[in-house]
Amino acid sequence: MGNANGSGSTLRTALAGISGVHATPYDRDGAVDRKVLGDIVERIVAGGIHNVVAAGNTGEFYALTPDEVRLVHDAVVETTAGGSRVTAAVGRSLKEAIALGRRAKEIGADAVMSHQPLDPFAAPQAQAAYFRAIAEEVDLPLVAYVRSDAMKPDDLLSIANHPNVAGVKFATTNLMLLAECVRASSDETAIWVCGLAEGWAAPFYALGARGFTSGFVNVDPKRSLAIHAALEAGDFAQARERVAEIARFETLRTKYGNGANVTVVKEALGLLGLPVGPVRLPGLPVLDPGDKEILKREMARWGLTG
User: Fold this and answer.
1) Which of these, 32, 91, 108, 213, could form a disulfide with 19 (CB 3.0-4.6 Å)?
2) CA 210, CA 18: separation in Å to the nearest integer?
3) pLDDT, tens digit, for every residue of 42-92?
4) Cα-to-chain-centroid distance, residue 173
């Protein structure tokens, strides 16, 4: 394995930007609609987003079959055609994750992102070992998607200091844990990325993280890029102002314990004229009428719809 987390790597530069997670559209029969998926990814790439995450959580990874995940990976790599970096999401059992990761290299992805293992009986130190095992077996840089703060700093640093780990997508609000990890990091440690989107990016930046992930880029990538530019310039007042503009949208996504997270994005894409279909169960298939009205007003206020 090569060294993926060196400070000069092109992937590290992309991770310090925005990692846009596309939505996955379905046709009338409920199958993945590859053409519309291409349209969505083209919008993200044309918008200037640095890294496209194929089959992330906004892409309903856990609701897709293994064959559908492979189809999504293929479509995203083909659509980006070098316009953005592509990180192919993997997960579930360790064998599945490794197999998907190796295939991602074959089709031309730039990196893999491992979802947090969801086994209810997973031990924190064993979850760290899961990430390291993928890093050992897949010859692509790994981004570890950490959604639990159960792992101790030593566990997290054992991931971040692995030579084939390029980034840790830190997606918990335990900022004290993040701060401790950043303090213990060096220039050769993987980059710590805000995994909680635009709304949490400012406090993450203040603690030393760089870049953020976004589902909002499906809707209006320019607004996400404006937030990123403000943070990179150290202009936290401007970043707060820009985040406030999309706060109602992001708050809608947190309803029902984040059960509406993907739903809001897909409803917004529908309002933009992209037929994406409902979210698959156990996500919320469609928005409640009142929430959909709020979404319509916000998109009209941004000038995206009439």
Assistant:
1) 213
2) 9
3) 999 999 999 999 999 999 999 999 999 999 999 999 999 989 999 999 999
4) 16
Least Cα distance to 196 among 211, 176, 183 occurs for: 211
Q: How far is CA 124 from CA 9, 129, 147, 152, 259, in A?
A: 29, 9, 11, 8, 24
Q: Would you call 218 helix, strand, or coil by DSSP?
A: helix
Q: What is the pTM of this model?
A: 0.96
Tell which residue, 291, 234, 281, 227, has the closest CA to residue 259.
281
Q: Are 212 and 197 in contact (CB under 8 A)?
A: yes
> Is 30 buried (19+), middle (13-18) or exposed (0-12) by CB count in 10 A?
exposed
Q: State the number of CA atoms in the 13 A half-sphere of 66 facing the CB.
A: 11
C-alpha distances (whole Å) from 117 to each of 69, 74, 121 are 17, 23, 10
DSSP 8-state secondary structure symbol assigned to residue 134 = H
**Which long-range contacts link 265-270 to residues 24+ away (Cβ below 8 Å)?**
265/23, 265/58, 265/215, 265/216, 265/218, 265/219, 266/23, 266/25, 267/292, 267/295, 268/218, 268/219, 268/295, 268/299, 269/23, 269/25, 269/40, 269/218, 269/219
CB 294 within 8 A of CB 248: yes
> SS3 for 54?
strand
Q: Are strands 51-54 and 18-21 parallel, antiparallel or unpaired?
A: parallel
Per-residue confidence (pLDDT) for residue 9, from 0 to 100: 82
Residue 178 identity (one-letter amino acid):
L
Angstrom distance (rounded) from CA 279 to CA 183:
40
Amino acid type, 29: D
Do 17 and 49 touch, CB atoms closer than 8 A? Answer: yes
Residue 73 contacts residue 104 (beta carbons within 8 Å): yes
| Contact call for residues 22 and 76 (beta carbons, < 8 A) | yes
